[in-house]
Design goal:
By secondary structure, the chain is α+β, with helices and mostly antiparallel strands. It has two domains: 1-108, Myosin VI head, motor domain, U50 subdomain (Four Helix Bundle (Hemerythrin (Met), subunit A)); 134-185, no CATH class. The chain has helices at 2-12, 40-49, 53-61, 78-108, 134-164, 178-185; strands at residues 17-21, 30-34, 62-66, 71-75, 121-122, 125-126.
């Protein structure tokens, strides 16, 4: 898991630069992209994921087009290659996140009906998805923080103020979502 995370970080740091390739099929030169042979991040990425660095260099800068009769390899512009590099990093990260969720779910499996689950509160209430994306997790985490901020200011501080001023008040019992936030953000939490 740590090797994959390190590889994703190095993938994001691979430098893709302009390159001119000869023969675009029309007799002229076309713009393309390239990665230096000594790009440290690409070499570390290849080592971590046990990939051939030269093949990775080529695939990050070229697109494969399959027609009915032929296969073409078309160079990508720097903008296209950077977009493809970032999409690959996001895809690897999403697959890793899905794998972690699967491992956690298998560890929590039991033969009886489950009375426990991990739910994250968002603006519309608790949601349970078949597949949670990392983006959805981050959105729900942000919503937990917003809910905590809301609870802190609207309920907790206001009720303390009423107590100080000795105002008669029927206390509102509200859910403190700090344990959920701790599960996500503390040392040895999900984000750590």
């Amino acid at each position: 898991m740590f090797k994959i995370l390190a590889a994703i970080l190095h993938l994001g740091n691979v430098t893709i630069r302009d390159a001119v390739t000869e023969g675009d099929g029309n007799g002229g030169d076309s713009e393309g992209s390239a990665i230096a042979a000594n790009d440290k991040n690409l070499l570390i990425l290849a080592e971590l994921l046990r990939l051939d660095a030269n093949e990775m260099r080529s695939w990050l800068c070229h697109r494969k087009i399959v027609s009915m009769r032929e296969v073409f390899f078309k160079p990508m512009t720097v903008t296209e290659a950077v977009g493809a590099r970032d999409a690959l990093a996001k895809h690897i990260y999403a697959e890793l996140f899905s794998w972690i969720v699967t491992v956690v779910n298998k560890a929590l499996e039991s033969s009886g009906t489950s009375q426990r689950f991990i739910g994250v509160l968002d603006i519309y209430g608790f949601e349970t998805f078949e597949i949670n994306s990392f983006e959805q997790f981050c959105i729900n985490y942000a919503n937990e923080k917003l809910q905590q901020q809301f609870n802190q200011h609207v309920f907790k501080l206001e009720q303390e103020e009423y107590l100080k001023e000795e105002i008669e008040w029927k206390f509102i019992d509200f859910y403190d979502n700090q344990p959920c936030i701790d599960l996500i953000e503390t040392k040895l939490g999900i984000l750590d």
